[in-house]
Design goal:
The protein has about 575 residues and is of the alpha/beta class. It contains 19 helices and 15 strands.
Length: about 575
């Protein structure tokens, strides 16, 4: 009967059935990538600019475009669950439901979205724990004829071995409680860990393996007391370290962390947050930076920032030892090996150099052949159109001797419409670098690109705060999940959190006006100088540009200030 002509006709008319899981992996990956991470639409008709990329290692909610549909699809079979799991459940915070509390700097007693006890109970006990128990019982019932499995503590169901949500999470935010015991064993795919909690004197020991970890953000006090995390330092690509000397016992200091950098490490980026700008001169800070530079061959990016929110110190900082000498002379060789450096202006002001260093000639053969290196300066409150002589000289030393080619300036607006003042400040500084000294060998013409971005503004920040408050009042949780520190509002000034960029070229010129220290005209110079010419870099229509490296560190600093800062119990005394 199978050889009848009728069956042959039917078999020819019915096309072969191709299931989704039968497709090759590369085609499946392209389909899922398009559904999850398609490029955002750029539409400038509503005057709303779109940010195409997010800062690295920042907390982004699990919300692809077709999240609900993909979640349902992942529940149809184990194959699709394993394929879609890393895309649907890549990040998890056991601390907060969004970043609003950190952005608004909400006092702990008034936090609305950081109920970590409820979040942890819901995820660890009600979701993971109950599923492990029920799936384990079901599988044991199915395998009940194998008597040796009953009572076996090492037994794991198929759900626990391969289908559990936590097995797909690569970015995790937690507090100190998860560092003890075996809680982190639930996350075998973990590559990024952010511990948002105050430093603790408790010794944290647990049974977990963090061999895949490449990013760690943690309070230095907690890191010192967690052997498993200390042993993971040599394998990290980036370390965000909150170094609060006001709450760190000076008997031990940060020696355990420094010792981990005495051996070869894979670190490429260090983001260091200090409790005060002057602690850059502590011997512990200097030894840490030296150890990282000496034993991390791929170390190329360094951020040094200081916290802004006031805190309560629990130890006497007078016991910490200051470096006996010029701090800048020790740090300058470290800066020279970097391709990207981010510094607060107050930290740079705390550095001192030898008098001879300010006058050393610039060793630069050809500015066109310089390797691209970026320095980002951060000043939260620009007070005028000029830069102080101390700051100017220190910045000049760092830029000339490290031969940076790109100069970025992240600033805060202290007066209305200060953007023109800041632009003048930046362009005048570049002109001074190129021709500000009588000895031409001390001038530097290697700057090829400058950018400035208004990151803080009393007016604009108030509008954002009002916008967020309206969303909270309306209980619009979906929009609140998409609010980030680098977010700008439709009603803000156009330059708020949007970078203006300029290319820099140099031309020979004579007859330049000479001014005295008070800004009065003295005369014209007959000598030839290299005058910097600035050309605006055209912006792509509908696209917003921000300094992603800066905002990656800034969002981390905001989180530490909110959750790891020893907040004072009373604000009555300032």
């Amino acid at each position: 009967m199978s050889d009848s002509p009728i069956n042959e006709v039917i078999s020819l008319q019915l096309p072969p059935v191709i299931h989704l899981e039968d497709l090759p992996d590369d085609i499946l990956n392209k389909i899922f990538h398009y559904l999850c991470f398609d490029e955002p639409l750029v539409d400038s008709k509503d005057n709303v600019k779109v940010l195409l990329n997010n800062p690295p290692y920042s907390y982004i909610q699990n919300k692809p475009k077709a999240y609900d549909d993909l979640l349902s699809l992942s529940s149809t079979c184990t194959f699709l669950r394993k394929k879609l799991g890393p895309r649907l459940f890549h990040s998890l915070s056991l601390i907060r439901s969004n970043q609003v509390d950190a952005i608004l700097a909400t006092p702990k007693s008034q936090e609305l979205f950081s109920d970590k006890k409820t979040i942890q109970r819901h995820f660890l006990k009600e979701l993971i724990g109950s599923n492990i128990e029920s799936c384990g019982k079901a599988e044991l019932a199915r395998l009940s004829f194998r008597t040796h499995i009953n009572g076996d503590k090492s037994f794991k169901s198929r759900y626990q071995q391969s289908l559990m949500i936590s097995r797909f999470i690569s970015y995790l935010e937690c507090d100190n409680t998860l560092l003890r015991g075996d809680g982190l064993q639930l996350f075998p795919r973990l590559t990024a860990l952010r511990v948002l909690d105050m430093g603790s004197n408790e010794q944290f020991s647990g049974d977990y393996n963090l061999s895949k970890l490449t990013f760690l953000a943690i309070n230095a006090k907690t890191l010192i007391n967690t052997p498993q995390l200390l042993s993971a330092i040599p394998y990290l690509k980036r370390l965000d370290l909150f170094l609060d000397y006001g709450n760190l016992p000076y008997e031990v200091g940060i020696a355990p962390i420094i010792n981990q950098f005495r051996i070869a490490t894979r670190l490429t980026e260090l983001v260091l947050f200090l409790n005060n700008s002057y602690t850059i001169g502590y011997t512990g800070t200097i030894e840490l930076l030296q150890a990282v530079d000496n034993n991390s061959k791929e170390f190329k990016k360094l951020t040094i920032r200081s916290k802004r929110r006031k805190s309560e110190s629990t130890v006497d900082q007078s016991h910490w030892q200051l470096y006996n000498g010029c701090v800048g002379e020790i740090l300058l060789p470290i800066f020279q090996s970097l391709t990207e450096l981010i510094l607060d202006i107050p930290i740079l002001d705390s550095m001192k150099f030898e008098s001879e260093t300010y006058c050393l000639p610039t060793t630069m053969d050809n500015s066109q052949n310089l390797r691209t290196k970026t320095i980002t300066l951060v000043d939260q409150a620009v007070v005028g159109p000029t830069i102080s002589s101390n700051s100017r000289e220190n910045i000049g030393v760092v830029i000339r001797h490290c031969q940076f080619t790109n100069l970025s300036f992240q600033y805060g607006e202290s007066i209305e419409e200060s953007h023109i003042h800041v632009l003048k400040l930046l362009t005048d500084f570049v002109q001074w670098l190129g021709n500000g000294r009588m000895d031409k060998d001390q001038n530097y013409t290697g700057i090829r690109h400058i950018s400035l971005e208004k990151c803080w503004s009393m007016t604009d920040d108030s509008l954002v705060r009002e916008y967020i408050s309206d969303l909270i009042a309306a209980k619009n949780s979906e929009i609140l999940k998409n609010i980030y520190p680098w977010m700008s509002s439709l009603y803000n000034s156009p330059r708020y959190k949007d970078t203006d960029s300029y290319n820099v070229t140099y031309v020979k010129e004579t007859g330049v006006a000479i001014m005295d220290s008070r800004g009065y005209f003295i005369g014209l110079s007959d000598s030839e100088i290299d005058k910097a010419v600035f050309t605006t870099v055209d912006k792509k229509s509908g696209v917003r540009c921000v300094n992603l490296s800066f905002w990656s560190g800034e969002s981390s600093l905001i989180d530490f200030e909110q959750y790891s800062n020893q907040q004072r119990k009373s604000l009555l005394w300032g």
